[in-house]
Design goal:
The complex is a heterodimer. Chain A is mainly α. Chain A has 17 helices and three strands. Chain B has ten helices and nine strands. In chain B, helix 5 crosses helix 6. In chain B, the strands form two sheets. Chain B has a six-stranded mixed beta sheet, with helices on both faces. A three-stranded antiparallel beta sheet of chain B has the order 2-1-4, with helices on one face. The chains are: A mainly alpha, B alpha/beta.
Chain lengths: 371, 248
């Protein structure tokens, strides 16, 4: 497999384009799911879609992708609004409702799949590919459907940008301003269901929620701007699609869906560690730097209290007196000396004018904050 | 102008709200005259927040009606501004202070239309009023609790409403912020606005407010602070023998 094959091989080009578009729409709409704290909704929706696929086949007897996906869309929507209904009408919490619908629909779907396997229909094989997806089955018309849905959802997003942002941040407030929150909720949820259903063929029921969440979770780490986050999530999703397809194409037997999900998950891990604002690495670095500075300040302020009692601020004192009263490290003293805040000679230290000024201003600063 | 002064800002009749079987508000009748600065006081679980949410149609009552200047809330959306509890939103949302304040202009813009320079100017003015102008580009999770409260207040100010409903605006803020907020509220009242504030600190009621409503699932009493803010009503509301030094 050569890199040029991506541009010459028709099938591969179709699959790559398809997974890229899928990744983009999932990243875009997944951002909404993540920010609304509905991360698990995607998982429930994708599992709830399975019986729809099976029923569509049982009723029509045809294994046409679009027909099966319409079945998936219907049962996905039914599952979603059952979840919302359960939360609204019973005392069950969101996570319980999600788990309930997920297992109920998925169990029913699996039951139907085994039923179909026993049916005397030569056409039956291959429905189980929707469990883990099979990108190789993507054809040009599938990609077109994905592209059109992505275009529509992008337009809706831009059109209702203001309202959707408001809904994400403060739903009650949105209501008080006179906006129809129910409409906005149904709108955004329907598009999330649509995106999930589009991905079932490629990534499958089981792993679909990762496609929705991973790019958004990764993107959140890099920016504090909603618009940028959504763009970044789309790019991460598209990258996962392209890169995942490339890996699976170059390693002949790897199935595409799981590889795409792993690439997306890898992006999440990288983002959680290396993002400058929120990443673990920089947080640890900041933490250590703060602790070091705090140590220095503590020692300096203690010295200041000693020095303050004497007329000559540069009068040497024994290092031992620090030791007796206050934990300090040789390292801290060296750092203070390096910054020319103190001078050390033998077993004695003395404060410089610079050190005295800094300690004094430190106290003034604290004093001001208390005012 | 004359017609509006005859109508109360808010009139509530027989309002009952229940979550499941438990009534949270029971048969509330309440009239809030225009131009008062009113505290709603009552113990935890008295239904104070629920009352505000019911006025705003966020919660659907099982019985009763709420009228805002003689009409249902839906028709008076532009006359009412809401300051929710600070803890009701996730402050880790990816946006900056100015953007949150701009949200106050969304209602007057209506569907689809985006805020422009005019709206931005209004938002900046509101930020200045609450003393938060220098934080306009600060990520909202980096703001202190008091600053977040001021941002919410600024968002409501931008709405330029006639009635302000506030759910515990003094919760978890320091003395400086509390002073700043109450000064803004008093200024709003001077402009003839009506303010309804869920309040917890009974000591400051006579100093801050001129009107008070005692609430404990049922409405206990409502009227001018100087007339009804007394040990009798406090005891009725809080159920224990309450003694508060009231300046009479």
């Amino acid at each position: 497999m050569e890199i040029t094959d991506f541009f010459t091989d028709y099938t591969l080009r179709t699959i790559t384009l398809g997974t890229a578009i899928l990744g983009a729409i999932c990243g875009m709409l997944g951002s909404f799911a993540v920010l609304r704290k509905q991360s698990l909704l995607g998982d429930a929706i994708s599992h709830a879609a399975l019986p729809g696929i099976a029923l569509a086949f049982i009723i029509t007897g045809i294994k046409d992708t679009n027909l099966l996906l319409i079945g998936a869309l219907i049962s996905g929507l039914v599952g979603t609004f059952w979840i919302k209904g359960i939360v609204k009408r019973t005392r069950l919490k969101n996570d319980t409702a999600l788990g309930l619908i997920l297992s109920l629909f998925f169990g029913f779907g699996m039951l139907l799949l085994t039923f179909i396997q026993k049916m005397p229909n030569a056409n039956q094989a291959g429905l189980d590919k929707y469990l883990f997806g099979q990108a190789a089955t993507l054809v040009e018309s599938d990609v077109w459907v994905m592209a059109i849905v992505t275009g529509i959802s992008l337009m809706v997003l831009l059109l209702f940008w203001k309202e959707l942002k408001l809904l994400l941040f403060d739903a009650d407030y949105t209501k008080t301003l006179g906006f129809n929150v129910r409409f906005l909720d149904i709108l955004i949820t329907s598009f999330i269901v649509l995106a999930i259903v589009l991905g079932l063929q490629t990534v499958g029921v089981v792993l679909m929620s990762a496609m929705l969440l991973a790019p958004a979770a990764a993107a959140r780490q890099w920016t504090n701007n909603l618009g940028k986050m959504i763009i970044l999530a789309s790019l991460f999703g598209a990258f996962s699609g392209v890169f995942g397809t490339a890996i699976s194409a170059s390693q002949n037997n790897l199935s595409t869906g799981p590889v795409i999900v792993l690439v997306a998950a890898f992006l999440v891990v990288v983002s959680f560690i290396f993002s400058p604002g929120r990443g673990l690495l920089f947080r640890e670095i900041r933490f250590r730097r703060n602790r070091r500075e705090l140590h220095q300040k503590k020692t300096l302020s203690f010295m200041y209290h000693i020095v303050k009692e004497h007329k000559n601020i540069s009068r040497p004192h024994a290092i031992r007196i620090l030791n007796n009263f206050q934990g300090f490290t040789r390292k801290t003293l060296n750092q203070l000396e390096e910054e020319q805040l103190i001078a050390i000679s033998g077993n004695q230290w003395s404060m410089t004018q610079k050190g005295y000024d800094q300690a004094e201003s430190m106290y003034n600063q604290f004093g001001n904050e208390n005012d | 102008m004359n017609t509006s002064t005859t109508l109360p800002a808010i009139q509530i009749d027989d309002l009952t709200v229940a979550y499941d079987y438990k009534p949270v508000l029971w048969d509330i009748d309440l009239v809030v005259p225009e131009g008062v600065l009113m505290a709603i006081v009552g113990p935890n679980g008295a239904g104070k927040s629920t009352l505000i949410k019911a006025i705003l149609s966020i919660i659907k009552p099982i019985a009763g009606s709420v009228q805002v200047f003689g009409q249902p809330y839906k028709k008076q959306v532009d006359k009412v501004a809401y300051v929710p509890q600070k803890g009701s939103v996730d402050w880790d949302f990816p946006t900056v202070a100015l953007d949150v304040v701009m949200m106050g202009t969304y209602g007057s813009l209506g569907w689809i239309k985006r805020p422009g320079q005019k709206e931005k100017k209004r938002a900046l003015e509101a930020l200045e009023k609450v003393g938060m102008l220098e934080f306009k580009n600060r990520q909202i999770s980096q703001l202190s609790g008091g600053q977040q409260q001021r941002i919410f207040l600024a968002r409501a100010l931008v709405q330029n409403a006639s009635i302000y409903l506030m759910d515990e605006p003094f919760q978890g803020v320091d003395a400086t912020t509390e002073k700043a907020i109450i000064n803004i509220l008093k200024e709003l009242r001077k402009q003839g606005k009506t303010l309804i504030v869920v309040h917890h600190d009974l000591q400051t009621v006579p100093e801050y407010f001129d009107w008070v409503t005692f609430l404990n699932v049922k409405g206990i009493a409502s009227g001018p602070v100087k007339d009804i803010f007394n040990d009798d009503n406090l005891t009725k509301t809080y159920g224990i023998n309450y003694k508060v030094a009231v300046n009479k």
